[in-house]
Amino acid sequence: MPAAADAEGSYLWERIQRNETNTYARVVELQHAGVLNGRLLATWEHHYTRGPQSNDPDGTPGSFIIRQSDDQGATWETLATVSDTQTTDGHPFSVFYQPYIFEYPQQLGKYPRGTLLLVGNLLPANCSEFSTEFFAWRSADHGKTWDSLGVWQRGTSQGGIWEPFVYLDDQGR
């Protein structure tokens, strides 16, 4: 079944392969992007399984697809595909879970208002090892390109981590 918004419009994404998994969608409306204010950016879990009836990853590297809409979700086009650029043992990871896009509402350090941060939970193909990693990327051009920032937090089979969430409190922290 294709992913769709809860209103009339086109599909956000329609799978290309029968073993393609697309779940856990997130959408952010840009509010600190100048002339791009109002643009919608969407991403979701995107990886491949051993078959259409399986939940087991097939080992193909996963990714977060970033799609944009300038007409309130009536149409969507791919802006970028974000992948695991690590080359250490077990990488690139196959399973990309729980993406979260945060738009900086103000300058944070050397990064201007409107900078985007994408955080996701990455897992290896052998989920029995169950080592989870919150991995982050940053975009200075409103989602067109993404720089890898690396692992922020690691979990284990005894202490897994789930659903990264980023916010700025009223103290600017």
Automatic annotation (TrEMBL):
Protein's name according to its UniProt entry: Sialidase domain-containing protein
- What organism does the UniProt record list as the source? Penicillium citrinum
- In which domain of life is the source organism classified? Eukaryota
Family matches, as InterPro entries? Sialidase_sf
Q: Where is the signal peptide?
A: none
